[in-house]
Amino acid sequence: MKVYGFYSQKQFENITRNNSRKEPYIFWEKIDGTVVQITEVTRDIKNFHNNFSDYICLGELKKWSYNLKN
Description:
The protein is built from 1 helix and 5 strands. It is mostly beta strands. The chain has one domain (3-64). The chain has a 5-stranded antiparallel beta sheet with strand order 3-2-5-1-4. The radius of gyration is 12 Å and the shape is globular.
């Protein structure tokens, strides 16, 4: 099953401002082996929760890597 990662600075600021996650820094490994910070993961690249206008698609992800605390 393919999953795709997205990053939005606005979403990240919203998450950290509201303290909605204990570990807001979320990192996944991409297919090419690079590790990227994400704010959203989805299976459907064309139809996903995109409430933030500044989101960027980081591509297909291979596996979760780690989280960090604020």
